[in-house]
Amino acid sequence: MPLAGQFVGDGVRLIRPVGRGSHSVVYFAVSKEGTPCAVKIFPLHLAAYADREYENAAPLDHPRLVRVLERTTVQDQPALVVTLARGETLFDRYAARPALTEERRAFLLTLVHLLDALAYLHARGMVHRDIKPENIVAEPDGSAKLVDFDLSGPLHEVLNAPTRMGTAAFQSPEAYRGEPLGPESDLYGVGVLLGWGLHGSVLEPGETPPHSDDPLSHLHIILTRRDPAARPNNALWARAELLALAGLPY
Questions:
Q1: Does the active-site annotation cover 130?
Q2: All domains of the chain in start order, with CATH
């Protein structure tokens, strides 16, 4: 049975699929008041991910994060109703590359908003664990929101078995090894995105960055250090350093 047109939760109407999360299909939807929103629908066997995301993300409220509003079901499949992030995913938004050459101010604003979101998460004892272009939605002026919390969890959480968290190209070395993760792991992902903005491509882990005269290349190197103990773990520091190196006011 087609899902489009169905009503779920508290009068939310599904309109059309618009993308995928790490473990879900995402639908554009409209609330009974006419407010646009999104619904993430999980396969039944991944219900634990929906429950975990609701438990971890429902208390979060920040302008640079989507809000998780309701845990519901769609045709007996677990689902979450979340606020709508307007714009395009980061790689689609910055199709002209390198982004820091083609649209410097907008891309810097996107990174600032990403670091604002991470500072809020980290201050509340959470790590996102999946910083990647698909989870950053940016508007034409560069304003951005961080989405998709189904891999998020407490700082330095010890799982029952080593689990590789995140997406390979943006994954910190410690995430690849399945170790407990702290803020420095999220900031590694920011560093990878900064390198992409500088060079127009994602560098391989351990690859020496091409020479760049951009002062932001220094921050890129610091944020992508292989040793997590040598990497910054403070998103507000990274935000201030980003703006200082870019020569912009705080």
A1: yes
A2: 7-83 (3.30.200.20), 88-246 (1.10.510.10)
